[in-house]
Amino acid sequence: MLKWRNSVFIAVLIVTLLWIRSPFHLYGSAENESLVIPPISKVKNVKSLWANIPQQFPVTSIKPLPTGPPTAIPKIQHNFKRETATEKKIRLNRLNAVRGNFTHAWKGYKEHAWLRDEVQPISGGFQDPFGGWAATLVDSLGVQCDILRQSIC
């Protein structure tokens, strides 16, 4: 098995080196003569090198870059009022409830469907509707970061 892999690797390497050293990859195909590009060493005017190539999406207008000092970006954050002790207690209780629900779901996923797409909460099994790329694992990392960021604040 190892000899076969090494042989294929060496064959691909040799073919690639031969292709790079050959002049054929520089010119394009012989079927489409309008796209044949001569080597740079034979072109006297480099601008004429690209003159015969048709543009698929030509530029119709160019918007100039802005000049002068930049304008200030308006503030979009909300100014929260100072919270009282009871409001802080309610907020922290809600945060702990969300954190508890998340950790419960996370433990279930780790126990029953680790590195799978979805956990089946009733049967304790798993499904792979997203190709088995552990989509739940990736999605939950964003949620976990959001919860941790709020607990730091």
Average residue-wise pLDDT: 76
Fraction of residues in helices?
40-55%
The end-to-end distance, rounded to whole angstroms, is 56 Å
pLDDT < 50 runs, ≥5 residues:
none
Strand pairing plus helix content: what structural class? mainly alpha
What share of residues are in beta strands? under 5%
Tally the structural domains: 2
Number of strands: 2
Q: Largest sheet, order of strands side by side?
A: 1-2
Q: What is the count of DSSP helices, taking H or I runs of 4+ residues?
A: 5
Radius of gyration: 31 Å
Order of helices and strands: HHHHEEH
Descriptive report:
This protein is mainly alpha-helical and 153 residues long. It has two domains: 2-49, no CATH class; 85-152, no CATH class. Helices cover 48% and strands 3% of the residues. It is built from five helices and two strands. It has a two-stranded antiparallel sheet with strand order 1-2. Helix 4 runs antiparallel to helix 5. The longest helix is centred in the middle third of the chain and has 28 residues, at 85-112. The radius of gyration is 31 Å and the shape is flat. The two termini are 56 Å apart. The model has no long low-confidence stretch (mean pLDDT 76).
State the main characteristics.
single chain; 153 residues; mainly alpha; 2 domains; two-stranded antiparallel sheet; 5 helices; 2 strands; 48% helix; flat
